[in-house]
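pinned: reference chain
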Amino acid sequence: MDEFKSLIVEQTPKTPQIDLNHLSGELILSGKSVPENAAKIYEPVLNWVNEYILQARPNTNLRLSLEYFNTSSSIWISKILKALTRINNPDYMLLVHLYLPLDEYDDINELDDIKDAFNPITDIFQNTIPSVGLKLYAINDKSEIVKDALVLA
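pinned: its structure tokens
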């Protein structure tokens, strides 16, 4: 049996940096995601995640720091999120970290606004086996975190 390895894909002008570490449970997608063929980028990620959930860490952190992504990328990211909710241990935790520009973060100031804005994501979290959390971060122009809020725990 092959040893399960981390997956690292270098960023390009149209594709994100992907760093999936099975030892730490840190799964990071950062940068822009506007590939012409999203399946070429995200199918290996989804395959990796499907293997990961069979031997997941007790705490999995999915960090989405995408400054822009197209519709086809969002479909694949949704598939990845859905797969992670199938971690088959109710004592395990999946925490999704979303990084937003400060002005967008400030625009989402009411709990109802947050629920509406992230409804597509929170719908995926319905009837999950692991505990799921959603944390938002406001980042400034230097990509520094200046505010954060736990939205769902």
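why pinned: The chain has a mean pLDDT of 85. The radius of gyration is 15 Å.
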